[in-house]
Amino acid sequence: MLAARAARRAAFAAARTAVCPRPLSTSACRRSDALFVHRDTEYNNPKIPFEFTPENRKKAQTILSHYPPQYKKAAIIPLLHLGQEQLGWTSISVMNYVAKLVEVTPMRVYEVATFYTMFNREPVGKNFVQVCTTTPCMLRGSNEILDTVCTHLGVKPGQTTPDGKFTVVEVECQGACSNAPMMVVHDDFYEDLTPETTRRLLDAFAKGERPKSGPQSGRHTSENSAGLTALTSKPYGPGEHCQPDFQ
């Protein structure tokens, strides 16, 4: 009986394979530079000590004072920013140090640091150049700006120059779409860029200068090319157009 049952199963499997063959296949192994997995290296491992400078310790205490004692973990992001500002990037030692400050397990800090792309988990150059290539900037020529930056510095997006002065990355919207195209260096926005102004800015940073941020076209803030066209009359005062009973 068991032999007959086994024979029926074998016959059914053979018939199913004949009617609907299902070949096995495997996909190619893909490795991504965006995988958020830490691997100890000579320059990034938990044995490398890190702590805030006396000045940054005061800043850290000020940050922590903004939150109730039982919610210290709410200060993880600003403290990581402070650590990155001091070191230049966010190492595993920075994360562990912040975890001790806010009294959470290190994993809680790792989760934050690997989620937000503004935390650089690898060393970057002295000047961190972030070129926006989202749609508004792309329509205004951001691809040419990115090519200008890479050609002028001799690197590709994601790379650092051999002298360690510049790291170039391509990023999404930086929030100044009306002044496209633009890039951010350090925490400063440089807008209304052309290849010529871009090269001039890079040369200034290479010399250790800090060029004036904002639009590089000569305009102020975000007014259009025709100049001021709205809100040109004197604003009316409170209650000026209300009914007499409400004035």
Descriptive terms for the model:
37% helix; 8 helices; Glutaredoxin; Thioredoxin-like [2Fe-2S] ferredoxin-domain-containing protein; 5 strands; Arc Repressor Mutant, subunit A; five-stranded mixed sheet; 247 residues
| Strand order, largest beta sheet | 2-1-3-4-5
What is the class of the domain at 127-215 in the CATH system? Alpha Beta
CATH superfamily name of the domain at 127-215?
Glutaredoxin
Oligomer: single chain
Computed Rg: 28 Å
State the CATH topology of the domain at 127-215.
Glutaredoxin
Structural class: alpha/beta
What ranges have pLDDT less than 50 throughout 5 or more consecutive residues? none
Number of helices: 8
Series of secondary-structure elements, N-terminal to C-terminal = HHHHHEHHEEEHE
The percent of residues in helical segments reads 25-40%
Mean pLDDT: 87
Q: Quick one: biggest sheet?
A: 5 strands, mixed
CATH structural architecture of the domain at 127-215: 3-Layer(aba) Sandwich
Head-to-tail CA distance between termini? 101 Å
DSSP summary, beta strand count: 5
State which percent range the strand residues make up.
5-15%
Global outline: extended
Structure in words:
With 247 residues, this protein is of the alpha/beta class. Among the domains are: 54-115, Arc Repressor Mutant, subunit A (Orthogonal Bundle), CATH 1.10.10; 127-215, Glutaredoxin. It has eight helices and five strands. Helix 8 (195-206) links the parallel strand 4 and strand 5. It is extended. The mean pLDDT is 87.
